């Protein structure tokens, strides 16, 4: 896809967020610099470009850069009896990470189809093993529910968190780790880094996230389609939201 239509992906949420007052001038500058970095990789050595994109993406996704205010939906509510109240919000900085990386991804050459049957097996194993491990380690409890905010949560979770994380860890990072380390070490290293990114939530939850990251990485590797990893990640998150303590069981 040509660059010009791809630019609509990050510029649209940037314009909307700025018009609604959620993105301040300093945030607009930061977003434009990030988009310029991501979408002009040929100007830098690949290792330097990749490192800068990863650092900038993590800073934005972790809300460490000024100029962005989240769009908060309602008040914090207790979704699970054994978990703290949860506040649904749209983070414009993380949304921009996902949309910008998606604009970059759509400009990449298509990947060859891999081994679909193995990808299916990995997906089935992941949706069973990840919630099971989370229950076993006690980071969540069995809490089936159908909250009123399910659909807005699903849209924000898929369109912001899942999209940004899969594009960053599987689309950008994993192929480069595989190229340098080999297939299995590359996937394992990517999964460990994905788990490490979740340490602020809980060290034990980071272990669960690392196992999930391995599943997402294998699904991407065997299918050759990032959309499979995104769908699998979304399915695991949906199971967490509807069947288990959300966001996490109180310690």
UniProtKB/TrEMBL annotation:
What's one Pfam family here?
Rce1-like
Q: What GO molecular-function term can you cite, just one?
A: endopeptidase activity
Q: Which InterPro entries match?
A: Rce1/LyrA-like_dom
| Residue ranges crossing the lipid bilayer per the database entry | 14-40, 47-66, 86-107, 119-143, 149-169, 205-222, 229-248
Alphabetically sorted, this entry's keywords are: Membrane, Transmembrane, Transmembrane helix
Any idea where the CAAX prenyl protease 2/Lysostaphin resistance protein A-like domain is?
149-239
The Gene Ontology biological process annotation of the record reads: CAAX-box protein maturation
PANTHER family annotated for this entry? Answer: CAAX AMINO TERMINAL PROTEASE (PTHR43592), CAAX AMINO TERMINAL PROTEASE FAMILY PROTEIN (PTHR43592:SF15)
Q: What is this protein called?
A: CAAX prenyl protease 2/Lysostaphin resistance protein A-like domain-containing protein
